[in-house]
Design brief:
Structural class: alpha+beta
Shape: elongated
Number of helices: 2
Keywords: Signal
Distance between the termini: 62 Å
Helix content: 25-40%
Order of helices and strands: HHEEEEE
Strand content: 25-35%
Largest sheet: 5 strands, antiparallel
Amino acid sequence: MNRNIIQPLTAAMLLCLAGAAHASSDDAWKQLAADVEAKCKKAAVTIEKPSATVDPFGSSHYGLALVTGKPKGAKGLIAQICVYDKQKKTVEIGSELDAKQLGLMPAK
């Protein structure tokens, strides 16, 4: 391939990829975030009344959320990372992380 064409092709490809992120409607992003939140909260079975903070766009393949709350039957605050597969519409949730170690607890 001619080396003079590599840079313009790369630039064109990047513009197309950037345009794809803007092509989705606001309603579609809101629906994705709502689905991620609902499924991640449901998956957080070790947390009483879980709260989910959803990354508004996630990655190209996954929706992402941080689920926090009081552990069932214990005191304190824990967090779990939740990953939502955009194609399969399924979630996986990580193990319990101590919110204090993550810096999520207010300073005393």
